[in-house]
From TrEMBL:
<dbReference type="InterPro" id="IPR000301">
    <property type="entry name" value="Tetraspanin_animals"/>
</dbReference>
<keyword id="KW-1133">Transmembrane helix</keyword>
<comment type="similarity">
    <text>Belongs to the tetraspanin (TM4SF) family.</text>
</comment>
<dbReference type="InterPro" id="IPR018503">
    <property type="entry name" value="Tetraspanin_CS"/>
</dbReference>
<comment type="subunit">
    <text>Interacts with claudin-11/CLDN11 and integrins.</text>
</comment>
<dbReference type="InterPro" id="IPR008952">
    <property type="entry name" value="Tetraspanin_EC2_sf"/>
</dbReference>
<keyword id="KW-0472">Membrane</keyword>
<feature type="transmembrane region" description="Helical">
    <location>
        <begin position="83"/>
        <end position="107"/>
    </location>
</feature>
<feature type="transmembrane region" description="Helical">
    <location>
        <begin position="12"/>
        <end position="36"/>
    </location>
</feature>
<dbReference type="Pfam" id="PF00335">
    <property type="entry name" value="Tetraspanin"/>
</dbReference>
<keyword id="KW-0812">Transmembrane</keyword>
<dbReference type="GO" id="GO:0005886">
    <property type="term" value="C:plasma membrane"/>
</dbReference>
<keyword id="KW-0325">Glycoprotein</keyword>
<feature type="transmembrane region" description="Helical">
    <location>
        <begin position="208"/>
        <end position="235"/>
    </location>
</feature>
<comment type="function">
    <text>Regulates the proliferation and migration of oligodendrocytes, a process essential for normal myelination and repair.</text>
</comment>
<protein>
    <recommendedName>
        <fullName>Tetraspanin</fullName>
    </recommendedName>
</protein>
<feature type="transmembrane region" description="Helical">
    <location>
        <begin position="48"/>
        <end position="71"/>
    </location>
</feature>
Length: 253
């Protein structure tokens, strides 16, 4: 009966190691996605520490590759030392992912304040040229999120660019794609996106942070199962002399 229990736990461990390798790739992908997406919106927040959860989750993903290798070797060789090391590293990663979840919630709550603090400054720096980073960022956001201005298109009237251009128009990135010959003129407001960008940028950044949080929670649960199986194998092996004798005999065979 004990032998069957150990064999079942070992089978689960091997399966979990395969999941860890898959999880490593997924976590690295999510972390990279967060970096790339935040790069498109980095003008709208100044706190670089917001990216800490993404950095940690990439590090965890890399570590999971190593964990999977250690776990497979320890399970196949039936090494007590290897299984103990495997369980200890899993515990460390589990704690790290719990920290990622906490940091994710903390920085998710700070996103709105960061955007509110920065967005007016970015719009005031708009110059309308592709060589200017704030201008590219605003045009990109307005096209991608289908928005115009901070709260609506009328916010452009308060920007330096609008006052200097004196053409009673907003950038063409405010134009709805189904409208032909749209020049951004305020005399035809129906041609423009009606929703402001501030709320949509906040929503987008919060969604990205939730991807990190849910990924960390999901794989933390899997790692908890891995630790449990490793502990079961170790405990039953230490309390089952017949199994220890069988392993020793097989090792010498």
């Amino acid at each position: 009966m004990g032998q069957c229990g150990i064999t079942s736990s070992k089978t689960v461990l091997v399966f979990l190691n395969l999941i860890f390798w898959a999880a490593a790739g997924i976590l690295c992908y999510i972390g990279a996605y967060v970096f790339i997406t935040y790069d498109d919106y980095d003008h709208f927040f100044e706190d670089v520490y917001t990216l800490i959860p993404a950095v940690v989750i990439i590090a965890v993903g890399t570590l999971l590759f190593i964990i999977g290798l250690i776990g497979c070797c320890a399970t196949i060789r039936e090494s007590s030392c290897g299984l103990a090391t495997f369980a200890a590293i899993l515990l460390l990663v589990f704690v790290t992912e719990c920290v990622v979840v906490v940091l994710g919630y903390i920085y998710r709550a700070k996103v709105e304040d960061e955007v509110n603090h920065s967005i007016q400054k970015v719009y005031n720096e708009y110059s309308g040229t592709n060589t200017d980073a704030p201008s590219r960022a605003i045009d990109y956001v307005q096209r991608q999120l289908h928005c115009c201005g901070i709260h609506n298109y009328s916010d452009w009237k308060n920007t330096h660019w609008f006052k200097e251009s004196k053409n009673n128009s907003v950038p063409v990135s405010c134009c709805q794609p189904n409208i032909s010959n749209c020049t951004g003129t305020l005399t035809r407001p129906a041609d423009l996106y009606q929703e402001g960008c501030e709320a949509l940028v906040v929503k987008k950044l919060k969604e990205i942070m939730m991807y990190v949080i849910w990924a960390a929670l999901t794989f933390a649960s899997i790692q908890m199962l891995g630790m449990l199986c490793a502990c079961v194998v170790l405990c039953r092996r230490s309390h089952d002399p017949a199994y220890e004798l069988l392993v020793t005999t097989n090792s010498y065979a």
